[in-house]
Amino acid sequence: MNRLSSVADNNPNCTNPAVAPATVPVSYSRSFGYDGLGNLYISGAVGIGAAGNQTVVNGKAVAYDAEDRQISVAYAGSAETYVYL
Fold it and tell me: Are 53 and 72 in the same domain?
């Protein structure tokens, strides 16, 4: 089966001033894996809960409500929360 296994971008003309000075190139790379049902996940950076949700992504804790909707992401002493109407 042909599936995405990794991605990388080392374009020196691509910068992100939000995380680095505009003169510093930002490199990006990820490796992916697949669970038994064929769902994609980020290799080595993910925790999977009993319901099949990603509970850890790149060191950030992710929480879900009873309907499996993402409700928060906690990282570095802060958190982002999501509200569904």
Answer: yes
